[in-house]
Amino acid sequence: MTNNKVINFENNLVNSSLILSSPHSGNFYPDEFLSLLNLELSELNQNQDSLVDELINGTLLYKNLILKAIWSRSVVDVNRAKTDFNFNDFDPPIKEIIAKPSKYSRSGLGVIPTRSGINDKIYKSKLSGIKATRWINDAWKTYHEMLSNILEKAYNEYGHYVLFDFHSMPSESDSIRNKVDIILGNCHGQSCDENIIAFLEKNLSESGLKTRRNSPYSGGFITENYGKPNENKHAIQIEINRSIYLDEKTRERNDNFENCKLIFCEMINKFEKNKNNLLG
To answer: For residues 175 and 215, what is the distance between their CA atoms, to the nearest angstrom?
Structure first.
């Protein structure tokens, strides 16, 4: 099994400086993970950014490269730092990586999640640190090696890169329901040039979508780690309200899926046509 899927990476060539990623649309669960579960798999499936990879894989005029994680985020979350875990959550502990827990891992949502999105314990008992380390190497390490390699190629070829990091968000929360379709996260101005986020806001608004910046999602590890606008390396997180493109219970496409796919692919194509002017 491949740990990650790369689309439009033929002959190891990067066709554009604009790279697309979908780190949370994977749905692979190792058999050994399933044997340790304390809850129903259907509960974990609700955490996935289902179909996001398909939503952005349409008619892309520049054949933009798309990187998709295969592993489920409930097993290994590649949008967390590799060090984002609690030492005491594993028995025996993880020894090869020094723990630097954040607010995410303290809530059970670190690089190896220990709780579901509704705060249920994922595992019957503490996970082995040996197993966790292997999963991190198989899923997290390979994803970031691939992403780093792709972005480095783009930077060397074009003198800059732009990363659109696509995610989806549940519609049920009070801060989201009927108020916003897209949240654009640039780490409060730290991960990409203002021209980029302003262009996306305008384009999406003209397409009839309601946008907001940075609240409640300002960007995860990927946006923070790869967005360095002072070096002409730009990253932006794009959170899509799931209700506009799928049935949140069944995870099947809804009647608006193809329209949303068209909107996002046109956004990507229009950005490509204006990219050089936006980046100066």
So the answer is: 9
